Amino acid sequence: MALGRPLFTLPLPLLALALLLPHLASSQESCPADCMTFYDGCNTCGCQDGQLTHCTEMFCEDDELGEAKCTTWTFTSAKDCSTCIDKGGLWNDQDGKCLKECPASAECVSDISDCAEGPPSGGRPSLDDCPRACPTVWKPVCGSDGKTYSNKCALTTARQCDKTGKLKTLAIIDPTGPCEDYSVSSVRDGESAEEGNGSDAVTLGPQEVHIATEGEPEEPGVHSPVVEEGEGE
Questions:
Q1: Residue 24 class from Cβ within 10 Å (0-12 exposed, 13-18 middle, 19+ buried)?
Q2: In the chain, which residue ranges form alpha helices assigned H by DSSP?
Q3: Residue 23 falls within a domain, yes or no?
Q4: Which of 14, 76, 140, 170 has the fewest CB atoms below 10 angstroms from its CB?
């Protein structure tokens, strides 16, 4: 028995739409494409229950490894802000919350025309207190804690918090590569770190320290320990 023709057929555009509908419905339940989970120095922020959450991050310079610039960022949309105001609320852009009354310490939006996506245009936090999100570029450096960091920005991020939540300072032992050739005798700032090849220990200060190998040119602004012949004998 020959198979009969289908009772009806869909034009190609409608067929394509029908195939896409399940995918579109499922994508609305997941985090948007621009929702990135990142490490801010102490806390991990990103998606929760399919929604963007409030985070603070620090951006690196355009060259990815330059001095980082701080800015606060609230992952909320203009729609959330306008919906809040339509309902008679006040939008706290710092916390991403709709409030009945605005605290004296906060700046709230009461006019829909002031609702805007992206980071607020206000002041920047202190560089020492500002967490940061670094690029994923691989230009490894060796830190004074004996760990290899993917780049200088990542090492500077790591200094934001230790396990107790207090700030710590890391120095760069080798800005040209990973830590495989180095061993560290102490990770505390101001104490010594020993080079893996058996050379004399050097004292690490709050600034970057580069231990140059023999014949290696030093980078501008980075100083290697110099031991004069006969010194210390």
A1: exposed
A2: 12-29, 78-86, 152-158
A3: no
A4: 14
Residue 70's SS3 state is strand
Q: What CATH number has the domain bearing residue 177?
A: 3.30.60.30
- pTM of the predicted model, to two decimals? 0.27
Whole-number Å distance between alpha carbons of 192 and 144? 9
How many domains are contained in the chain? 2
Instruction: Indicate whether 52 and 90 sit together in one domain.
Output: yes
d(CA 232, CA 182): 23
Quote the CA–CA distance of 229 and 20 in Å, as a whole number: 75
Q: 């936090």: which residue's tokens?
A: 125
Q: Write out the chain's pLDDT in tens, 233 residues.
A: 455 555 555 454 455 445 544 433 333 333 334 333 333 333 334 444 444 344 444 333 333 333 333 333 333 445 677 778 888 888 887 666 788 888 888 888 888 877 765 444 333 333 343 444 556 678 888 887 788 888 777 776 665 444 554 555 667 777 777 887 554 433 333 333 333 333 333 333 333 333 333 333 334 333 333 334 444 44
181 vs 195: CA distance, rounded Å: 8
Length of the chain: 233
Place of tokens 């605290």: 103
Are residue 102 and residue 142 in the same domain, yes or no? Answer: no
Q: Which tokens in the block code for residue 175? A: 């800005």
Tell me the C-alpha distance between 27 and 44, whole Å: 23
Any idea which residue has 């600034």 for tokens? 207
Q: Is 197 exposed, middle or buried (CB count within 10 Å of its CB: 0-12, 13-18, 19+)?
A: exposed
